[in-house]
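G., the chain you wanted modeled:
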Amino acid sequence: MIHNVAVFCASASGVHPAYRAAAEELGRALATRNIGLIYGGSNVGLMKAVAEAALTAGGKVIGVIPEVLVDLEVAHHGITELHITGTMHTRKALIGEKADAFIALPGGFGTFEELFEVLAWHTLKIHAKPILLLNVNGFYDTLLIFLDHCIAEGMLKQRNREVLLVANTVEDALAQLSATIAA
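Predicted structure as tokens:
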């Protein structure tokens, strides 16, 4: 059963309104299913959008943010729980520990790094939690092509590539996560 989902996403909003709309839809959908949101604890960009939508829908929102970002005044102090860590490493470890599944919305280096770290952890059998890309507006299309290129070049095994679930809508994403947990 999924109690908490970690959502990795941008501290920016991006150029397409679809990114923010998907973040808000995801926040609401998690809240209405009584699934807690765990995220980077920020009060900007898509991170703020997903957190605010979950809160507005009555959901539980857990933020995990390193001290350096609190000092830059980007911490969201209006969420259910805010955990402040000493480093980015401890932030990611705490998010990974608290989450039952992971979803990546559009983002930049930080989102990519978090996504690939949980994928590596899965490959190394550190966890067996589902990991999903929410491919809003085709944002991750070229990344998916690159992963297939990695398979063709013998750098990534097909079975490890298949760990990464992909959905184009919030409803499909949550259905896939539920099916994976139930299996």
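Strands lie at 4-8, 36-39, 61-66, 81-85, 101-104, 131-134, 164-167.

Shout if anything looks off.
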